[in-house]
Specification:
With about 300 residues, this protein is mainly β. It folds into 2 domains: about 5-135, Nucleic acid-binding proteins (OB fold (Dihydrolipoamide Acetyltransferase, E2P)); about 150-300, OB fold (Dihydrolipoamide Acetyltransferase, E2P). It is built from 6 helices and 16 strands. The strands form 2 sheets. Strands 1, 2, 3, 4, 5, 6, 7 and 8 form an 8-stranded mixed beta sheet that branches. Strands 9-11-12-14-13 form a 5-stranded mixed barrel. The longest helix has 11 residues, at about 265-275. This is RADX protein. InterPro entries: NA-bd_OB-fold, RADX.
Amino acid sequence: SKLTNLGHLEMTWRSSVHFHPLLVRILHKSRLRYYGKPEKKMDMPYQAYFEVADGSGMMSMVLWNSLCPEWYHSMKVGTVLLLAKYAIKSSYPFKTQPTPGDSQMKRFATIEICLNVRDPPTEITIIPEEMVKPEWGLPEVKYRFITRSELDDLPHNHSCDVIGLVTFVGRAERARKREHSEDFWLYRWAHAIDGTSDQPFILELFATSQPDVFERIHPMTYLVCTQMRVMTENPSRTVYLTTSNESQIFITGWHKGQPYTKDAKVKNFIQWTKSQSEADQIKKTVIGGYYPFPRPPDSFLKY
């Protein structure tokens, strides 16, 4: 069928009612958002954002309501989609923005693609990776992996991806989303090493929309965290990483077929793990317990 591209959509969307199909690759995926309220009677008040791209650039795509339970888990980072009968609307200005792996990619920020169950009913087709043709010009998923030795030089709130061997994972803890609120964030602390520093990555991992992975983070697994934010604790200058709205977490057993397996820093890490003694590393691992962070000074004078 006749296709359009994201760049053409941005120029012509106001003068069009029906849009030609789109062929795009998912580059980023947000956590699933529940926006239900007691006074509003909606069957499936869910929403999820994706950043999708073709040869012309990148744009936000929103999956609405009952399409979320049907499609959210099938739409992975790297998945190629053929979209027909979608809607276009002005973009929501207060949405979080992931940092693209390719800084040269053009971003279309004024509009977003809406996938709805009706008005119009969107047609979604997932194209298997082996059927994707090079002539379609779809961009590859790119990452911003850093090593532990590079972390201390990065600015506050910098976005990056990390891979490491888990040496500590704390118990799941809860924090109120807002004061006096009944809603909680669920999170846990983890340490991961990559052989480039004596210090581990300190990771604050909030439960994303991947409960199966979040609950199975154990010592000695290879942990990949994408779209993490650098946080600097003053005055101690302790640096840690926290998840963002677009973070994805993967552990041993989930890595196969993920786009990051081709990344050079991921390959270097795998080579380093092959040189390590598993028995020696297991002796250094810890699980559970209370993890106070940032750590209090070791004497009152230092307060």
